Amino acid sequence: xxxxxxxxxxxxxxxxxxxxxxxxxxxxxxxxxxxxxxxxxxxxxxxxxxxxxxxxxxxxxxxxxxxxxxxxxxxxxxxxxxxxxxxxxxxxxxxxxxxxxxxxxxxxxxxxx
Amino acid sequence: xxxxxxxxxxxxxxxxxxxxxxxxxxxxxxxxxxxxxxxxxxxxxxxxxxxxxxxxxxxxxxxxxxxxxxxxxxxxxxxxxxxxxxxxxxxxxxxxxxxxxxxxxxxxxxxxxxxxx
Lengths: 113, 117
Hints:
The complex is a heterodimer of chains A (113) and B (117). With 113 residues, chain A is an all-beta fold.
């Protein structure tokens, strides 16, 4: 059973701080990794995708991937109250049915003003 | 990012009626579409995967005769909840992906909130 694990939180950080969201996955052959943000009552929206080991930066967001450790993280710099949401980690393997995303249960982030 | 639309955004119906939800990819051709359900304060649950022109693949525990999925074109998939009951009340979200490439991203529609009275 392929699994994606996230700490459910809530993770509470003060405004302006760095929020660090972590995710581990069980399937060593996973190839593609995604972070989605979901506001309460809304559908998920894509924030970042990462495919290679290392860091990928996009504005205030940085995704980090370590395939050897089967670990992917999302850093949010200068956190804002508007970043308060549930963050979903999603992992995908090879094509066919393994090409379907496996989602973690999400980490709830709360940024306090 | 790519745009996926859903219609209706909200529907209230009486128990026993059927409800159809449409999902469209607006600026790309979606070879694969996914249907998820999310109950309040719970995680996304994949219901089924459909490829254009093929029968949908349902997840374990999802009744294929109750949740009818049609993916007739590369831009449209529909989910019909037949004989809906109050326990079917949920947030239904579709998602679409262009092709099977590893870098192809899966985009979500805005969701449909179904309330069955």
